[in-house]
Protein: 2-isopropylmalate synthase
Amino acid sequence: MGVKRVIVFDTTLRDGEQTPGVNFNSRDKLEIAYQLAKLGVDVIEAGFPAASNGDFEAVKNIADYVKGVTIAAMGRAVKEDIDRASSALKNAEKSRLHVFIATSDIHLQYKLKMTRDEVLKKAVEMVKYARGKFDEIEFSAEDASRTDWDFLVKVFSEVIDAGAHIINVPDTVGYAMPREYGELIRYIRNNVPNIDGVIISAHCHNDLGLAVANSLSAIENGATQVEVTVNGIGERAGNAAMEEVIMALNTRKDYFGLVHGINTKEIYNTSKLVSELTGIKLQPNKAIVGANAFRHQSGIHQHGVINNRLTYEIMRPEDIGVVPDTFALGKLSGRNAFELKVRQLGYNLSPGEISEAFRKFKDLADRKKTIVEEDIRFVVEETIEEFRSFREGEAWA
Ligand SMILES: [Zn+2]
Structure:
């Protein structure tokens, strides 16, 4: 057996669109879908065609134009939703229905007002109804993490018999703990008798800040598909963030030993596009794609990184497609170019400080081939600090 591959299912356009205040138009959705295909996701969940005509059109557009990737559409376990999904996906290169029904007692009792037997029957009936209308059928047991494990096993085994290719185990309300969720995935893998050849999928929400941890735990325990969104957007506190799951798998390849189809160099572009089109700015300390994710503040850290990045960096900005800004500044740069760059970075130095910072910069440029923004900040901040302590010294003298 070769190296195991994780299937990346992106639901930025479906669960991500359930972010409060976010409403993509059809053109935004198409633009994001093209970028997701470029990023290398395996499946794009394009929307929920039965929800509105707009959503139907958006899914159809993506299925018509975005190729080289599976296009999924969501629907409830009712014929109308399945029919709408099927006609929206008609021209998809590879189509997937994502059909769901809740399985937890709390949802059965208060939302569906159905018994377990009724839910089981409905699930099987609708998977059978969908069979042949799509290339693949994914069945989701909504609120799986709060469902009785043995009932879940029973539902999964019967929908697999009915024709489901992928079974999804959502932590719909972000309630599970990493070890517990991993154990659930393992329980399903070990107890669903016809699980061989079926993809087990993790879908985690971030209500307790554990969506990524839970997704990784699921992967460790046998999940072969992970459902993610760009920047972690989604219903309430959001979903597992694509960039965090992927960079964890990459940075700790030694630990997971898994491969995936994502071109990490497209992560930054994708994140920026989604942030622009949703109007949702990232917190500066957001892992991987936040503005501060690769900035070092402490002087000790800066010294370390300038000497060798491995001292304090476990990833390189280039890995996610951030082009290191070299400013075309090097040892041949003059004082004016340097001064301009310093101002562009937001510093306002006295002539004395500029002279000193420039001297330090020349010194550094002699030792280092490429000068990046971080280097400039470093010499400038060191200079400011020296001048301040000098002034303080004078005041005390
Ligand atoms: Zn969800």
In short: The pocket of zinc ion is lined by residues 15, 170, 172, 203, 205, 235 (CB under 6 Å). The chain has a mean pLDDT of 93.
